[in-house]
Amino acid sequence: MATELRSRGDERLRRVSPIRRLLARPELGAVSGAVLVFVFFAIVAGDNGFLNFRGISSWLEVSAQLGILAIFAALLMIGGEFDLSIGSMIATAGVVMAIPTVEFGWPLSLSILLAFATAALVGFINGTIVNRTRLPSFIVTLAFLFILRGLTIGFTRLLTGRTQVRGVGDHLAGDPLGRLFHGEILGLPISVYWWLGLAIVASWVLQKTRFGNWIYAVGGDSEAARNSGVPVELVRILLFIGTATSATIFAALQVIDFGSADVSRGLLKEFEAIIAAVIGGCLLTGGYGSAIGAVFGALIFGMVLQGIFFTGINTDWFNVFLGVMLLIAVVFNNFIRRRATEASG
Predict the structure, then answer these.
(1) For residue 169, what are the CA distances in angstroms to 8, 210, 291?
(2) What does DSSP assign to residue 75?
(3) What DSSP letter does each residue of 186-243 carry, written as one string?
(4) How do strand 164-166 and strand 260-262 relate by DSSP bridges?
(5) CA 112 – CA 171 distance, rounded (Å)
């Protein structure tokens, strides 16, 4: 049978060269960009601390915290949706952890669990509204960006009279869940291990599981996916829960590291996560991208942010670098997508 198919030129049996397979990888542009950015700052700022252990640890920590958000933002974008509420979710999750612990004497672990439950509820509501109303997720989650930020400010002032809750660090000793978000391993911040662990799990889900195929199918053509038996609504809800959960992990790392929560935390993080995912090869139209690409997108972001600091250049120029990189990444990814389409045609 295989011989018969091969004799007919069946495309499933056609050999594809390693170069064409490489060009079809969505993360290729981000990997190349990360190498170029690293070489640039290694030359320009290598002697100023960019290459020593402390310098590497600093830009890895910045990359890791953004990368945790970017991985789940990428999964959601592959599924064809956006979540603009994750920046506000960071502030909400932070005060949900801090207020019960500091003001009411709850164990820190219990407050952390409450924050994750709140995130799951917010993600469920976002996904359900998108499913029921068919409104663009951009609009729905933009509304929740303001709703969550307003609720966070309002309740924090009402319960504490302040916008910042200090004293979380006093409750960390001996707390089993708190230790998962605090400290270093082999000299690297714990956030780096969260980043790498989540990247491995997300890549496995995307590449090796039925749920990963469902995400690509929903992002590519949701109606065709529904007609093929894919539970489109469930996939969307789980992806929105994922982005809200990633914001809560980010919040836990910062609240425990700083020992406090602040209602202003997470500002613009939703856009930075989307930028990292786009730099990593995710298409704004959905159905294409990878978690590994988002990892390298966040790595570029972190190296540029800290690299400019090591060069001594005014950090006011950071946004110029970021905008140029985003434009180059989108143009390069479009070029690769066209080449991949031609290769498979």
Answers:
(1) 68, 42, 33
(2) H
(3) TTEEHHHHHHHHHHHHHHHHHHHSHHHHHHHHHHH-HHHHHHTT--HHHHHHHHHHHH
(4) antiparallel
(5) 12
Q: Does position 9 have pLDDT exceeding 80, yes or no?
A: no
Would you tell me how many other CB atoms lie within 10 Å of the CB of residue 306? 23
Q: What is the mean pLDDT of residues 304-327?
A: 77
Q: Report which secondary-structure segment, H or E, holds 184.
A: strand 184-185
User: Which residue bears the tokens 């730099």?
Assistant: 279
% of the chain at pLDDT higher than 90 = 62
- Provide CB contacts within 8 A for 97, sequence distance 6+: 108, 111, 112, 114, 115, 168, 251, 252, 255, 261
Beta strand pairing call for 184-185 and 188-189: antiparallel
- Write the pLDDT tens digit of every residue in 155-204: 999 999 999 999 998 888 888 898 899 989 998 999 999 999 999 999 99
Separation between Cα atoms, residue 172 and residue 178, nearest integer Å? 6
Reported as a single tens digit per residue, the pLDDT across 66-114 is: 999 999 999 999 999 999 999 999 999 999 999 999 999 999 999 999 9
- Per-residue three-class SS string for 231-255: CHHHHHHHHHHHHHHHHHHHHHHHH
How many Cβ atoms sit within 10 Å of the Cβ of residue 51?
14
The pLDDT value recorded for residue 14 is 59
What letter represents residue 235's amino acid? Answer: V
Reported confidence tier of residue 339, pLDDT bands at 50, 70, 90: low
> Cβ(276)–Cβ(298) under 8 Å?
yes
Which whole-number Å values give the CA distances from 318 to 62, 295, 321, in the listed order? 14, 20, 5
Q: What angle do CA 304, 306, 310 make, to 5 degrees?
A: 110
Report whether 65 contacts 191 (CB < 8 A). yes
